[in-house]
Amino acid sequence: MAGGTPLPYIRPMREHSRPLLVLHDCPSLDDHLEAAVGDRFRLIRPGGWRELNARVLEMAPSAVLLVDPSHGHAPDSGIAPELEELRGRFPSSCVVAAFSTSRFPPAGLRRLGQLGIAEVVDLDDDLVPTVLRQRILSARALPFHRLLRAPELNGLSGRGRAILDRAVDTVVTGGLPRDLADDLGLSPSTLLRWSESAQLPTPRRLVLWLRVILACALLDDPGHSVHSVGRACGYSGDHALRRAIRSVLPLSPSELRDRGAFRASTDAFFQVLAEHRRPAPAVGS
Q1: Helix or strand or coil: residue 94?
Q2: Cα 227–232–235 angle (5° rounding)?
Q3: What is the dihedral of CA 147, 149, 151, 155, to 10 degrees?
Q4: Alpha helix locations (H) across the chain?
Q5: pLDDT (average), residues 175-193
Q6: What is the structure's pLDDT at 121?
Q7: Which of 7, 32, 112, 187 is disulfide-compatible with 117, CB 3.0–4.6 A?
Q8: CA 174 – CA 232 distance, rounded (Å)
Q9: How far apart are CA 194 and CA 203, in angstroms?
């Protein structure tokens, strides 16, 4: 922590059952959905695109949106303008599109890729609980997809990569450093040793960084205010979010937004990782 300042208070928000917001009218999808997700997800069914937007604004970043990309329009018309609008307001949201790929316009398929849709469920082939579950579980918030695939992480050891990957899932579901240890099946002291050997920040610092990066991704969403970002990410309010950011970055939320919050925070995080991997100076040099 910078200057001995205590780390900001984080409101407990661990969601072992992640919100799954379903905007779809396919009966056969409904038949398989509950069996597919079990108790891993809490099903929420908004009444339309407007309610879905409102729900996204208040939901934790662990939420997954399972939508018919043409909802409210003819299936062969392609992507609903409401989905385009939602992706414009909340580009960091995790969206899974469920539709019949054989009846969807090719231009619409290309556009789904451009919109950053996390996963696709093909209603012609994927309506088997095991396949449906795999599609939904593999959907991860787009910002962390980009983070984990960054070339700056290529130097991480296998152990370091495993810790970081699990830390991302822990943070997305509102977990704390002790939850990261539990998720890895380790004691806190063993996780600390593993982190040191993998040349990573301490688990406490790593979780703090990833929380800030997730908050920064939401700060880049035009549909989010600083207040809604703080609440969605588990902080007690604006002030706690600002303190969390200040503990790792010398910038305010508005300054981060001006610079591109996600890019600025990940660049700073990569610098921290590089410093941890830098060899210690030889004695007497």
Answers
A1: strand
A2: 70
A3: 90
A4: 27-37, 49-58, 81-89, 106-114, 129-138, 142-148, 158-172, 177-184, 188-197, 203-219, 226-232, 238-246, 253-259, 261-277
A5: 92
A6: 92
A7: 112
A8: 10
A9: 10
Section 163-171 average pLDDT? 90
User: Quick one: average pLDDT of 58-74?
Assistant: 90
Cβ pair 179, 166 in contact under 8 A: no
pLDDT in tens, 201-227: 999 999 999 999 999 999 999 999 998
Given this structure, which CATH class describes domain 143-277? mainly alpha
Top-level class of domain 18-139? alpha beta
What pLDDT was estimated at residue 173?
78
Q: Are 216 and 181 in contact (CB under 8 A)?
A: no
The dihedrals phi and psi of 11, each to the nearest 5 degrees, come to -70, 130
Per the DSSP assignment, residues forming a β-bridge with 214 are none
Mean pLDDT over 42-51 rounds to 94
For residue 143, give the amino acid letter: P
For residue 92, the one-letter residue type is S
What is the C-alpha separation between 140 and 178, in angstroms, rounded? 22
Q: What are phi and psi of 44, to 5 degrees?
A: -130, 130
Q: Round to whole Å and give the CA distance between 204 and 188.
A: 10
CA distance 284 to 215: 43
Please, what is the Cα angle at 15 between 96 and 181, to 5 degrees? 110
Q: Mean pLDDT throughout 182-189?
A: 93
Q: How far apart are CA 151 and CA 68, in angstroms?
A: 33
Residue ranges of the chain assigned to CATH 1.10.10.60: 143-277
